């Protein structure tokens, strides 16, 4: 390995530098293979998501009510802390939750001899190969077992494909990575580490952009952006139903409704097909106030007028996850926000045109200083500036009116939507048109975007590579570098010790 191979430099475009580095160190990383079994991380995702249609019951037959799945534990010990459940008609029980693929994993991992696990109130497994109804703790007490196989209709392959493990809590079962040991020895320029993450962050955008060819909306950038914005607006819990709704009310239909009958007509179609209209399910509470009554009357009239022109069956209310979501982030407000975005974009002939206009105003000159570019700022403000006469002051139909207007899409979510939807789709479009100028300007906006809100994977990676979030913050100074951490996680750290042994980042550190 020649040290000169790893003299990194800033790059002003989405160049495949990371891919070339990986190829020069080890073979191209492959996606995790799960056909031979299920990774424990998928079990944790299933538990955290709580996307079960049937009533859960423990192996002893007790009805299980999950009040809170708990918080992902980034330290040693049980996978989830501060969970809360009810068994049968009993009182709420609070404590830890441990997950395994098989119930036998409890003893295989030595938990039966570890007092750290004595606060476990539930042992969640995919398959109960023990034949027992409970698991024995170190102090001799018994804790119930919940087997998920009877509540999951999809196969292992489909689960691995549809569950985005990056959006779920991760424990630090792998502890410090090989890279952390190398960094702790000193002698490696932090700026070099940052530039490596820059290139990994670019690779993540390139890979995400290439996947759009597989989506039903491929070939129609406007429709693709619409679906992607809807998904990104839904957060983790409501990402899939928001995407489903976008396809039930496709962009062409949405634009026609706004053009011919105004935005409330689109609201009616969206809420009607989502199953969120109050007439579609029973709502407890007092009679609605006059403003809500007038709004609902208008929606119902519009829904009656448009529902026969829409294809497909309306979604069920239970498809939406409100538990654990802040009221200001409820899907009703996001739907209203995207509807107002389409209304605003109509004057430009689509959503892409005003975004591209802002991008072309920015010089395509890379900067080492991390400060939000005018283009990124303008696009984010396009999303945060959306308002609605009703939903800017409400979180639910008929809910208590807020004291002041609240953004339908907050700044943090708008920045995430910019990275996850706008950057990737605009990059795919620029490459399809061979528009190098647009690509460079897009890269400039992306490369200078400050850090996004953290998540469990970023915290996991900060601990694994840098030994904690505080030392990581000195290097991971931008959204681009955060995306680089996510790319390393996907390529190597998700594979635990196997990935660590063949990690290109660690190999490059040793050669630098």
Short structural summary:
With 512 residues, the protein is α+β, with helices and mostly antiparallel strands.
Q: What's the topology here?
A:
Layout: H1 17-25, H2 40-49, E1 56-57, E2 63-68, E3 71-72, E4 80-87, E5 92-102, H3 105-108, E6 120-127, E7 134-136, E8 142-147, H4 156-162, H5 178-184, H6 190-210, H7 221-233, H8 235-248, H9 251-261, H10 263-274, H11 290-306, H12 331-345, H13 352-359, H14 374-384, H15 411-432, H16 436-447, H17 456-466, H18 469-473, H19 479-491, H20 496-501, H21 504-511
Parallel strand pairs: 5-6, 6-8
Antiparallel strand pairs: 1-2, 2-4, 3-4, 4-5, 7-8
Helix pairs in contact: 5-21, 6-15, 6-19, 7-8, 7-12, 7-15, 9-10, 10-11, 10-12, 13-14, 14-15, 15-16, 17-19
Characterization of the model:
This protein is α+β, with helices and mostly antiparallel strands and 512 residues long. Among the domains are: 110 residues, no CATH class; 124 residues, no CATH class. Strands 1, 2, 3, 4, 5, 6, 7 and 8 form an 8-stranded mixed beta sheet that branches. Strand 7 and strand 8 form a beta hairpin. The longest helix is centred in the last third of the chain and has 22 residues. It is flat and about 70 Å long. It starts with 16 loop residues before the first helix and ends with a helix. About 3% of the residues have low confidence.
